[in-house]
Amino acid sequence: MAANSANLMIAIGAMCLIPLIFDLVYQEFYIINFLIPAAISIGLGYAIKLYFKKYESKKIKLKHGMMISSFAWLWASLIGGLVFMLATELPLLDGVFESMTALTGTGMTMFADVEILPHSILFFRAFEQWVGGLGVVVMVLTVLNSRGSISSKLYHSEAREERIKPSVGATLRETMKIYAIYTLAGIILYLLAGMPLFDSICNTFSIISTGGMSIKNANMGFYHDDVIYFISIVLMILGATSFLVHHKVISTKGKSLIEDLQFKIIICVIAFVTLMLYFVSNLVPMEILFTVVSAITTTGASVASPQTMAGWPPFVIICLMCLILTGGSNGSTVGAIKLVRMITFFKGIYRHVREILSPEGRVVPIKLNGNLVPEKSISQAGNFITLYMMFILFTWALFCLFGYDPFRSLFAAMSLQGNNGLELGIINQSLHPALKIVGIFDMWTGRIEIYPVLITLRAFFEIFKR
Fold first, then answer.
1. For the segment 325-334, what is each residue's pLDDT rounded down to a tens digit?
2. How many CB atoms lie within 10 A of CB 201?
């Protein structure tokens, strides 16, 4: 287990070296600010690997994979936070928050003015989002081309169930190929729309990963271009669609996309909510459409500022909160509860109602995409949603305790836990340190779906009990 953690630390350190390309291109000379965190992560990783080499095991259990995954996300955020601290003089806590919000695809920021940041730092934030979109562990496994039971346990530790290919290794490679193709397509489309090359790269990394952290203070609203907004909408929907569906698009001539239940629900919800909000408010149609898509795909990109959104009608905000809570498809880059859990949960409720109305002893089966849903999956969906809502309730209560507006606080709590990024103007550098720590915890647990973190904390406390 220690050896696997060490490999992840080495890979995370190597990640810090990639932005040096842009540092050299733009001659910004922030090299040392990337080299120090990279050296710390790589050096410690090698030291741990050498020390625990004789204890290295070929097999690990799922709980060990979850602990390694939890550690990887936290360590990546810490190393990234160190980069931000050294390069921008941001306090370490704010730097870790910035790094966590990028890696988890949440997209909030501690920087008051991102446009004054060096190109290398802006790219680093975008690159963290791109890596985090697939998952830190998944991305590292793809690069290392790991095979066998270890890669399988680590793959499942990041709440990934679906396999494109029979083996995890082949699934990782295929997923990475799809991700790279869409990334390249996004860059080209933005360039054709007139966006500068650097902006195209960073915005594609941010949008396809459903991260939403922009390189402009006004986010995507900076460009004032409906073509760019439409490209972003398409990329957000692609990022929120299962990679398994993407893989089958060509072989099925597009039928896998049209027939996928989660994709159909996403499109129907976007169309229905956009039309409804258009008729009940005086908002600009493109602003409504863009924000609705951003909310349900948990991207958090925006064309309206947080202050502007805070002035929108309460009904509009409540609708956005429902979308933030739901999220997109399972097996995609999105956060939140995810549609498959919501569908399973409500089907379970409907089944219970039907069983009460049916003759005594009748068992009503639940099917999803034509397949029978196991009873275990129904209870797991309910348990996760309950736990998820408890985390939101706890965060909301803390925000209220520190004097923040209850309505905006609930929106912020949902956005943090769902790795969304849309917010109403209360998440900034002036946030109380205790709330920043809670926010980091929420984003961390939200991205790897709570249980790996709880298992890690339980194991940590067990050590001190001995």
1. 999 888 788 8
2. 23
